[in-house]
Here is the input.
Amino acid sequence: MDPEIDRPDPGKAADSQSSETKGTAAEPAPPGVELRTVKQMDERSFTRMSRRELLKLAPVLALGAFAIPGVEKSLLNKGLGFSDWVSARLFRRRHLAPTFADSELTPFEKFPINGYDVDDPGVVFEDWRLTVTGLVRKPGQYRLEQIQALPHFRQNTRHVCVEGWDVIGCFGGARLSDFLNLIGADTSARFLTVGCADDYYESLDMATALHPQTLLCYQMYDQPLTREHGAPLRLTIPTKIGYKQAKYLTDLKVTNVLDRVGYWEDQGYSEFYGL
Here is the structure.
């Protein structure tokens, strides 16, 4: 037999409910309380909604700012300048770019030839000199043989073009840092600039110029540099984008002030562009 369970009397329960309902219903809310409560809830809901919507709209508003005449260029320049500033401070002076085995090299005939103006500016190799000026103890004109007399370095490194392609090449030459030592360069200076036979020009921050993989390159694939690839002398900088690696070098200057940054940089490209 199941134990007996006390069940409430339906009549008493109804009376009790009726009594409680009468007690609460008999007390009206103070005038204006309900209106203020609804209003406060609406304001809080609106504030929360507004914040959410603003967060959603922020990227759109930022993009919209680029459409305002006179603002777009300024915003781009400031953003690019900030990016270069951060990149320069993250640059590790002794950190080496990846190197590769000979078996991983891109075949020489498939190494792209990128020209600034002409593929061959017609340098007369016998008359060629590298003119050195600026903050150096030994300014003057240096022959290729003097550069080749410095310790020779051979490296298989990746060349990355801003156009979107990259290849692995074999480069040989003298460390730029050794040449700077030869000419008595003030390595506390901020920049090094180069001019080229085809009127191209470029600049490097001093930390990049002193990097052990930055070469004054006069060989590719263990052969003398060809005219198409920048003979008799070019820069090879595996820590930088391709347009920093000027060809057909004719002038080198150590300085603290840049009159011009670089051909592409002066048209809006990144100044530092480290890889």
